[in-house]
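Note to self: the last two entries modelled the partners one at a time, which told us nothing about the interface. This time every component goes in together.
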Amino acid sequence: MNRESHLWIEAELKQKDRLLLKCFKMKIPVYDTYEKGKSLFLKIRIEDYKIIKKFWFVKIKKKDVTGLLKVKELMWKYHIFLFAVLFAIILLFFLTNIMVKVEVIHSKKEIRDIVLLSLAEKGIKKNTFRKNYHELEKIKKEILEEYPEKLEWMEIEVKGMNYIVRVEERKIASLDEEKTACHIVATKDALVKDMVFSKGDKMIMINDTVKKGDILISGIIKKEEEIKGIVCASGVVYGEVWYQISASVPLEYTVTKRTGKKRWNFRYHNSYYDDFLLKSRLDSYEEESHPFFNLLGQELSFIVQHEVEKETKLYTEEEAENIAVETALKKIQSSLDEKESIIDKKVLKKEKNNSTMNVEIFVSVKESIGEIQEFEIEEIKKE
Amino acid sequence: MHLYKTMRSFLLDQDYYIDMWGNFIHVYGLVDIETLGEKQITLILEKFKLNIKGLNFRVLKLTKEEILIEGILEGVSINYE
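The predicted structure of the combined assembly is written out below.
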């Protein structure tokens, strides 16, 4: 870029040479020239413009500066646009660098609270600037060192404007080993189906019926009525347990079906306000939300509203019974682990009221029935 | 000013020079311009007149001491008066 500022002038005159000769006589340097039609274009110094303007045989039609002055002129001409661009860049910088949420993913509230507090102390909290990778690594290391007994592993992930913190709790080996004397006792009435034990004396056989509180694996090891040793019994006993469950299902159900008609809307949300920006013109609809903007607790989402038609239908007796059984079994299944299972089921009673179907079901389940129960060694010795 | 003139005469030890290349003529050491036409240009230097003849002459740059001309050159003559 030419830093020295010059002026291009368009001079309209009959004798073009005359102007050049006059410039030479007046010691006005001409840095460039070209002709276009009847006009002669000259590149001169800005201060010489006033002199040329006074020549009576020249008619100056247009002038245009070059160099830094041109830059200044353009900047002034487009100052609103430049300001808008600058503002947009700053806004973009803020939007891409401000974190609006810190989410700690762990099932225990205690762990979540510890991590959130530590992160906040180290500057990771909402509405702050994003930390770089090295800072995050350093903070992660510091927190893990701060809670060596509680935290095993931690990962801080930056997702958009959110920090997602995944934590793994440190599980210290169970204190069972410290227990010196314990039995495995039955937690419920059952029929023994399977058994695995590593320590203790087995008190039951497969297909034995046990009652709640019966000792399944004893911590007292006897031989011919003489106590040979006392241990903390360990093992797992699976038994068949019976449940009687009732479930009820409404006979009426509603089916929603999209009509294909849709409307767009925006939802604005903050701690005081949560509503659509445009009037909703559909009576019944399903929403599909696309977060659009989230800054400092101000959320704007783009919403697609799909119109739906609702239709009320009735289950047949058979369908209602199946659904009730399914619901009841799901309920039981959710409390079982992978080695436990439902053995059998039977519908005991079904009753249809005006609007519901009530079903009573008998379910037999194979599940763990043993739990550790400590005892005092001194008492055993006295006996 | 004296120092400047001495330095200048040391570095630029010619009173004038005329360069010609392609369709360009560069003249340094100009005192005056007598004619400035499309077919003929007469330049006055300190000790002689320089006549340049040709076609489509156009002045590209012009300062108090030098001139740059573009055009089809047909002949150059020097006239000592």
